[in-house]
Write a structure and sequence with these properties.
The chain is built from 13 helices and 16 strands. By secondary structure, it is of the alpha/beta class. It has 2 domains: 167 residues, Rossmann fold, CATH 3.40.50; 187 residues, 2-Layer Sandwich (Dihydrodipicolinate Reductase, domain 2), CATH 3.30.360. Strand 10 and strand 11 form a beta hairpin. The chain is globular, with a radius of gyration of 19 Å. It starts with 5 loop residues before the first strand and ends with a strand.
Length: 377
């Protein structure tokens, strides 16, 4: 049973430890939950900043609804970083609900998000609790940009791009957990929003983003569709939403695209256990170890939303730095609101709708993690 208001589940992982960094920075006591308490303590001692000044505990728990419910009880908020979420996420969502906790996570896996909405959205709303997937850099920055665009009257169509640079120009620096989630997207339907309905992208869909922030176009992919089409599906302001993700290194993105094509031709119809083995081999070969802590001079991002109406258009851009560090900040910003009982909506809801996109943007801007600009086109 948790003694403190925030639970970090997946505490020995890269994103979990960065979330703890920010909780310590904001003087918020937390309970770290993981399968191996000893390993978690060792990893935290190596990687969590200012751990000596933290108020925390570590609870060891198996990944079952019963064990996690017991571990979460007593807390108010669960920050879940254990993925791939399409495989492990629903167990944690159910446990958080049974423990009476709000649930935050970091993924935009559409299949998982739609299951959360269908199976748990009403139950969380009835309990007065928030269940908010995809509260992380990869999705929230683009959502903030989209919300800034929607502040302009008449905007009802959105196109968003999330463009990132890692330590060697491309995707290097992606964590083991993120890599596993990326490859899990290969066997899931990837949807965009068109005329208020989710529509599957054709197999092999790609984009060439001609952003004014770069000299040459950036090759981008649907990236599972991202969370935005799901969150805007029932938003009366929005008729369509198409989102994509790209890394500055086009060679890296072309390689990811080719893996997707190979999946369609060679692996798509294999039994699930054989697909699991293929994905595990991909993860091990591309991301064998935990990456180093991000550097602000290297890891930079540009997220853009172009909003269109019948006779107008607007471009909202959020420049950012250190994607995973920003994810920890977003988790903490949301936890602060939830500890205080301050949320705009309950049930299945995005971070921007639950806490306000201006609040999240301000939290990031004040800490040097983001800067937003809006231009009427």
């Amino acid at each position: 049973m948790a003694k403190y208001p925030v639970v970090v589940y997946g505490a020995s992982g890269y994103t979990g430890m960065l979330t703890m960094d920010w909780l310590i920075d904001q003087n918020i006591p937390f309970t770290a939950v993981a399968r191996d308490a000893r390993r978690t303590q060792e990893m935290m001692a190596q990687r969590v900043v200012r751990l000596e000044s933290a108020t925390y505990e570590i609870i060891e728990a198996e990944h079952t609804v019963e064990a996690l419910t017991h571990a979460f009880k007593g807390a108010k908020v669960v920050c879940n970083t254990v993925g791939p979420f399409v495989k492990f996420g629903l167990t944690t969502v159910e446990a958080a609900l049974k423990a009476g906790c709000h649930h935050l996570d970091t993924t935009g896996e559409q299949e998982y998000m739609r299951k959360v909405r269908e199976q748990f959205g009403d139950l969380y709303a009835q309990a007065g609790l928030v269940v908010s997937p995809s509260l992380s850099y990869m999705y929230t920055y683009a959502e903030i940009a989209a919300e800034l665009a929607l502040e302009h009257p008449g905007i009802d169509a959105l196109e968003t791009s999330t463009l990132c640079r890692g330590p060697r120009g491309g995707a290097a620096g992606v964590t083991v957990g993120s890599t596993a989630s990326i490859f899990e997207l290969l066997r899931s339907e990837q949807c965009y929003l068109w005329e208020k309905k989710l529509v599957a992208h054709p197999v092999g869909t790609s984009f060439n983003i001609a952003s004014p922030d770069f000299l040459t176009p950036v090759f981008a992919l649907p990236w599972g569709g991202t969370s935005l089409p799901v969150y805007f599906e029932n938003d009366p302001r929005v008729r369509s939403c198409v989102s994509c993700v790209g890394f500055y290194d086009n060679n890296v993105m072309q390689m990811v695209h080719s893996i997707g094509q190979k999946w369609e031709s060679e692996y798509k119809f294999l039994p699930p256990e054989q697909q699991d083995a293929v994905i595990q081999q991909m993860v091990q070969s591309t991301t064998p170890t935990m990456p180093p802590r991000e550097r602000t001079t290297i890891v930079r991002m540009v997220d853009t939303a172009i909003g269109r109406g019948q006779l107008s258009s607007v471009r909202a851009t959020v420049h950012g730095t250190t994607a995973y560090i920003a994810t920890g900040a977003l988790q903490t910003a949301a936890a602060i609101k939830l500890i205080d009982g301050d949320t705009n909506k309950v049930g299945f809801v995005s971070g921007s709708k639950a806490f306000g996109h201006r609040y999240l943007l301000g939290f990031l801007e004040e800490r040097g993690l983001a800067r937003a600009t809006v231009t009427q086109l």
